[in-house]
Amino acid sequence: MKRRDFIKDKLMFIVLFLMMGFAMGWLIGTMGMPKNIVILIEIIIGGCGMVILICEYHRSAGFYKKIYRDLNLLDKKYQISAMMDEPDFVEGKLIYDVIQESVKSMNDEIGKLNVDCEEYSDYIEAWVHQIKMPIAVISLICENNKNEITTNILNELKSVEMYVEQALYYTRSNVVEKDYLISALDLEKIVKDVIKKEAKELISASAKISFKGIEGDVYADRKWIEFILRQILSNSIKYRDQNRDMELTYEMINKPDCSELIISDNGIGVDESDLGRVFEKGFTGKNGRIYGKSTGIGLYLCKKMCNKMYIGIEIYSKKGVGTQVVLTFPKDSRILLADGK
Question: Does pTM surpass 0.85?
Fold first, then answer.
């Protein structure tokens, strides 16, 4: 609290106090008191007023300065109520009570919202598992009745499965404790398993896939890293250059403190103006608008899941040349394993 602001706030009190002092001095003067006595009385009255103001200023300023100091130290400002001491003056007590009551009300509302979110999350997970059965049945019927129509249906079912999987992982990514376990994984096996799932699309794209030193373990959650790798592969297939055979490279570079998996393709590439926003939720960019196949959720989920597993993810691209995705796996597993328990 600044002195100037305090004086401005107490200006009415100061004016009234001065008027009262002058009025009392005039009244005493009319009673025949010596002038020096009148002046002394006015000085005493003025001094008492100053002492009252100074005491009130220091009491209030100490309270507000502590609040601002504690507030600046907090990352989560709403926790200020837990650090406040109840003051011993009326105005401070009112502020203290209002803040405590507001925080209590906010916590109650957050509790209700958390319950609603958990119920909705449980519903989505149940729906995802239920919808997998009719998808599997439709797929089986189409496989047993191969023709041009059923082949097209199977291709569309592939997209449906991907979107259903996105919905499941979008829900799970908001709750770390659900389906989340960090462990040492054989990266080569996971990469090849993901490629097998997209084998038909890769064959139809005449894809040439090469591997460079991807042997070795990395620390991640198996299901989450499979989802991330499949999203990256799906994007490479989706945005391939139709005028040339698809080329895909998986390369591992080992460094003292981390391992980098570099996934490169020769697709249409990402416009330079879009690169900085590819991980934003719902962002589709120029490619999404041109090809109409993007939801803007896949890479957003990849980034979110990588952050939870302390895995770095970066995208580099040049229009008409191709795209490169770099996943950085930390080698120190101690924090990761503790966090994933």
Answer: no
